[in-house]
């Protein structure tokens, strides 16, 4: 065997191949919310809860989620239906994030290109939160207090599933849209987010109002890593697996 005492750039090191996304996410402690019938608690056509298939976490309708608690599953696109200007949100409480390092992947269908809020990480004890939104051809990850703001073009398919991965680490926000290159903010003082965190799907909080932040799309999958940013170079294997459509069906 040949050994070279030479530094090899990270870009030249092949990531570990992931052949089973479910098993991989279980191993690294991720919450994978799949919006498929096997993982939904249904009451007629109403989705009363979404169960993580890799952990014990469970997402339930947020408090303002009233008139849309019926017929909110799209059997064609296999996901939860969201409507513009109407509160159709779900939330899972205390997802266990350390606050300074986390990441979240969102897979969705937005043929109308108006999803607006995709997810929000909102703590109970601090008047600030981080949210991901897509509107007017742009994808933005930022906090409510405008400490950090990262926006990239919302490149993607006109129809079918889209994938956005967002994260936070090293006092930066990180963002990746489809297979495009990763963008990140310059390092600044950390965003003030205290524990515990609540993860919202398709809305900002449990408060009524903010209808202008509520868009139209079908949410298919949410994966949340509470203690790692999969957009960092040492998680290339995970990121590579997310780009393989077949692994989402496993």
**Any idea what the shape is?**
globular
Beta-strand level of the residues, as a percent range?
Answer: 35-45%
Counted by DSSP, the helix tally is: 3
Nearest-integer average pLDDT: 85
The parts where pLDDT drops under 50 for at least 5 residues are 6-14
Sheet/helix structural class: mainly beta
Distance between the termini: 37 Å
C-alpha Rg (nearest Å):
18 Å
Proportion in helices: under 10%
The largest sheet is: 16 strands, antiparallel
Order of helices and strands: HEEEEEEEEEEEEEEEEHH
Number of strands: 16
Would you give an account of this structure?
This protein has 250 residues and is mainly beta. The protein is built from three helices and 16 strands. It has helices at 21-27, 236-242, 245-248; strands at 31-34, 40-43, 46-51, 58-61, 73-74, 79-82, 90-93, 102-123, 130-135, 138-143, 149-153, 161-169, 172-177, 183-184, 197-201, 214-225. The chain has a 16-stranded antiparallel β-sheet that branches. A hairpin with a 5-residue loop joins strand 10 and strand 11. The protein starts with 20 loop residues before the first helix and ends with a helix. The model is unreliable at 6-14 (pLDDT under 50).
Q: Which helices and strands appear, and what pairs or packs with what?
A:
Elements: H1 21-27, E1 31-34, E2 40-43, E3 46-51, E4 58-61, E5 73-74, E6 79-82, E7 90-93, E8 102-123, E9 130-135, E10 138-143, E11 149-153, E12 161-169, E13 172-177, E14 183-184, E15 197-201, E16 214-225, H2 236-242, H3 245-248
Antiparallel strand pairs: 1-16, 2-3, 3-4, 4-7, 5-6, 6-16, 7-15, 8-9, 8-12, 8-15, 8-16, 9-10, 10-11, 12-13, 13-14
